[in-house]
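Final report, closing paragraph on structural work. Over the funding period we assembled a curated collection of sequence-structure pairs, and we close with a single example.
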Amino acid sequence: MSVPSRRVSVDLGARSYEIAIGEGLLDDPTLLRSWLRGREVCLVSNETLAPRYFPRIQALLPPDARVSHFTMGDGERFKSFETLTALLDTLLAERHSRATTLIAIGGGVVGDLTGFAAAVYQRGVAFIQVPTTLLAQVDSSIGGKTAVNHPRGKNMIGAFHQPEGVLIDTACLKTLPERELQAGLAEVIKYGAMHDADFFAWLEANMGVLLAREGDALGEAIARSCQAKAEVVAADEREGGARALLNLGHTFGHAMETHTGYGPWLHGEAVGAGMVLAADLSARLGLLPWADAARVKALVAAAGLPVMGPEGMAPEAYLDLMALDKKVIDGRLRLVLLSALGTGVVRDDVPLVALRETLERGPALCQSPT
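Its predicted structure, as stored:
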């Protein structure tokens, strides 16, 4: 069954753009061509996806396009300064001008690094996102956050740089490994937990069909997630306030990823476990009923995601790494918590004793201590 085509607008004035969602969009050249800045194009993907997608994307380009290709390693550890430099070397060697358009084809690693290269090459060139993973389709491809990782912290070096458009072909998910599909569902759950209680309940009722990759359900989940993110980004493009709510689970999750060395844990897996920690802490502080915290944990588990952090990761390791998080301001750690299902809240006054208690709970997370 084909997924109906949907459109979501990200309203940012002169930097506004469209998210196109549907099955088979990579068979239609009209949309991609309308977003090109000029006739110079650089296709960027990883070594796993490049053989599959480079010929398809190139076939969509105008016949007179001058096309370069850059293939990076596959994995979070390649979102690095070394890969960024290699991509910039390619652009320079191929004499790309300010009229070039970079096209990122892949997951969040490819999209983030390509976007950062576009932000800094000749002080900014155009780029297009063609996300092929569920996580990238509902989160990292939208909103203009671009970055590379640093050994001391994830996404610590980057820039805000909005794409010309986001092309989401849901057919890409048919071949997505199950683990990566599950990882993407963590970000989908996030939108329900922090933004839309009705969507959270819909996910509880439909998780089975989402895991079975039923087309209409996936299209609905993607569109509702993109709409939620578009609304938040339009209200707060550079994370001065409301956009911070999109980081539910991420401060904990980034600490897990940094601790394990960017690779053993997928980003979505860390976010899933991080949301459970955030829900437990929210209940511990009296913000969220314990029963609702348990619902967060149950939905994360139903998506096939871990509900606890890496084995053996001590509270001190979390605290040390969280202290380096981008959301630390004036020495105060800001955490995204839940005041209700569907309502996120940013707190910078969490008592250290409460945070430690949550980090020490293990299997008892989201269970009332009384």
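The chain has 13 helices and 13 strands. The mean pLDDT is 95. We thank the funder for supporting this effort.
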